[in-house]
């Protein structure tokens, strides 16, 4: 018989359809709005009593609780309505007090039997789930200046170790300048430093009675520093977002100096900004001694008492970059503190510095880069100009009683919240350069749900229109095309769920476009069958010839569209990529259903019948 498949082809089609339906099913179970409660790092774990305390407070506030879960010391409280999330978090925070992290979440509602086979719903993008979007600008000039300050400190230490005397040292623009009174000392310094710092161009000049050694960063070095700053900030921000426990975050580079951060499900913009954009770092310095020169010291105020001042050595023992782990806790007096663990090199430097300075004071200097905006006139127009500035304050100043190693504590913090955030920032790493918020948007969960509802409606309308057209145009064969189209939609959703693709509004547009394109294969096949019937072929011969001869046209049309989708994916950003992924998967599923599934249904329904006429 012409229109019969071997049994193995029917089995392939059946297996693909069954697997597709199974892995598409989780999308029928929408995620529950939830509140996640976890203990502060290393401080507290959640008990059933505390969950009961939180749910009782929610009941009194009139917030319906759907279910509660307790797993590995973390609690999840599922709610009935997304609009209650923000209020529920505030109530739980007030009820449980300090020492707990209370965050918004969306909890999976997929049945256990589907999760057992690895079936999960599609991930929703920021425009559908709601959350916050930040566009961060990395301060490239500050990145260069910070690197110069680090190099200048290392150079001063090198010259002291080699007993090379210099009069002064300063950092300006892209250069480090050392001043000497003796020409021989200058030559020795240049010889020593030029072997270690090949990223600088070395020149000399006269300045009054002094001879100066000027070390200017090369253009390539500046480019490398700036590129490193963006990459390091990207890594640090990813670590901070992971610490926040946000589900499916997006952190990616955009252009030479910008970073895009999208946090789905997060509605507290202030808290997200405080953690993501914080540029806090620590420096450990010795207090200046009586014989320290003016060019070797800096004076700072205390954070909790700005009127109190202390002079510190300019040279830094270690910075927060040497911290391998940090956790918040309380001392014997109930005051907040941060427990610090240093990496190997950092521990060695700390031990060496404290062992040689027992009895002297050591300060912990808290550094934070900020910016303020001012309205200025430029070209006759008022524009906002960002002015960066740095705040430095001493957290603690304590006497070194004995040599310190890899572990010690930082005290003098104002509150447990400050201690918790400082520990988080130290764990995730400091930023290589300050960042500023160039743009921020908040998408509420109600807007996200509205987007989903409209997207689903557009898919439904598109599907109905295509179904009606195929029925009116091709009669009984239209039913076969519509069955294939329904299977195609299920397979597309299943493929996106299995691959972990994120569904966005452009992705929904891609699904609608796929539905329209999916019937192209059937249209080509059915029009070819009509032509073969007009040429006088029998119904079965016309069906067989129609499928065989339409294959090349269908393949060519879909491959060209697939190439365009791949180009969009390779050069596009977020929304464009989402559209390209959906379109690419849709093309593949459309070809399978148009050529294999519809042919299988045709063969099963009419392949074994004697046909005198085709209703097509």
From TrEMBL:
Main location: membrane
Domain Protein export membrane protein SecD/SecF C-terminal: 438-602
Chloroplast keyword on record: no
Domain spans labelled Protein translocase subunit SecDF P1: 230-287
Region of interest called Disordered, as start-end residue ranges on this chain: 326-348
Topological relation to the membrane, as annotated: Multi-pass membrane protein
Gene assigned in the entry: secD
Taxonomy of the source species: Bacteria, Pseudomonadati, Pseudomonadota, Gammaproteobacteria, Oceanospirillales
UniProt family annotation: Belongs to the SecD/SecF family. SecD subfamily.
Subcellular location: Cell membrane
Gene3D superfamilies (UniProt xref): 3.30.1360.200, 3.30.70.260, 3.30.70.3400, Multidrug efflux transporter AcrB transmembrane domain (1.20.1640.10)
Spans through the membrane: 7-25, 455-472, 479-501, 507-529, 550-572, 578-597
Biased composition (Polar residues): 326-340
Record function comment: Part of the Sec protein translocase complex. Interacts with the SecYEG preprotein conducting channel. SecDF uses the proton motive force (PMF) to complete protein translocation after the ATP-dependent function of SecA.
Domain SecD export protein N-terminal TM, first and last residues per copy: 2-104
Keywords: Cell membrane, Membrane, Protein transport, Translocation, Transmembrane, Transmembrane helix, Transport
Pfam families, sorted: Sec_GG (PF07549), SecD-TM1 (PF13721), SecD_1st (PF21760), SecD_SecF_C (PF02355), SecDF_P1_head (PF22599)
Subunit and partners: Forms a complex with SecF. Part of the essential Sec protein translocation apparatus which comprises SecA, SecYEG and auxiliary proteins SecDF-YajC and YidC.
Record domain SecDF P1 head subdomain: where: 305-433
InterPro entries per UniProt: SecD, SecD-TM, SecD/SecF_arch_bac, SecD/SecF_CS, SecD_1st, SecD_SecF_C, SecD_SecF_C_bact, SecDF_P1_head
Name of the protein in its database record: Protein translocase subunit SecD
